[in-house]
Design goal:
heterodimer; A: 112 residues; 5-stranded antiparallel β-sheet; globular; B: 7-stranded mixed β-sheet; 0% helix
């Protein structure tokens, strides 16, 4: 069964810092990986979707990379802002193809 | 543009009472629809998915059921709630299914069973 792990579980940084969130998965036979953002008590918002043929995707200050062979993905946030404070989750498709296997997330706090 | 509506936002129910959570999607047709549950410390778990009207697949055995009476309507139900049914329930959709497109989530329902 596909296992998804996110490190660290929580992270606190001062505003303006660049930071990296990590995601690892046990089965490298994936065809994409998604990064989501979740604000407290809210639903998830898809930030970036990386197809298996791609190595990275960028959206504004966010850059996600994917290394299938090592079973890893990173989410890079440049020049962090207090508004970036949220939980960030990564997810990969399950073997059934319909379910997404989610990590437990990294809770990010950016302090002014 | 597409939107997803989920209600209610919060719900407190006694053990043994019935449950009905509703989710509707606008601005698209024939979406794939999903119910996820997020329990504290356990991450997100897929409960049900549907690729069309009347077609429901269950990922895990449980006390809940799902129905899709219309193309863009997905309902999560229970006849008798258990304490273990407490959690944050999220409806989601994607346009093509198979996990190859972005997944869009509703705002969630926080269910507390007492």
């Amino acid at each position: 069964k596909q296992e998804v792990t996110q490190i660290p579980a929580a992270l606190s940084v001062p505003e303006g810092e660049n930071l990296v969130l990590n995601c690892s998965f046990t089965d490298s036979a994936i065809y994409n990986l998604q990064w989501f953002r979740q604000d407290p008590g809210k639903g998830l918002t898809s930030l970036l979707l990386i197809q298996s043929s791609q190595r990275e995707q960028t959206s504004g200050r966010l850059n996600a990379s994917l290394d299938k062979s090592s079973g890893r993905s990173t989410l890079y946030i440049a020049a962090s802002q207090p508004g970036d404070s949220a939980t960030y989750l990564c997810a990969v498709p399950s073997n059934s193809g319909y379910a997404l296997n989610f990590g437990k997330g990294t809770s990010l706090l950016v302090t002014p | 543009s597409q939107t997803i509506h989920q209600w209610p936002a919060t719900l407190v129910q006694p053990v043994g009472s019935p449950l009905s959570l509703e989710c509707t999607v606008e601005g698209t047709s024939n979406p794939n629809l999903y119910w996820y549950r997020q329990a504290a410390g356990r991450g997100l778990q897929l409960l049900f998915y549907s690729v069309g009207i009347g077609q429901i697949s269950s990922e895990v055995p449980q006390n809940l059921s799902a129905s899709r009476p219309q193309d863009r309507q997905f309902i999560l139900s229970s006849k008798k709630l258990l304490l273990s049914d407490s959690g944050f329930y999220l409806c989601a959709w994607d346009p093509y299914g198979g996990g190859n497109e972005k997944l869009f989530f509703g705002s969630g329902t926080q269910l507390s069973v007492l």
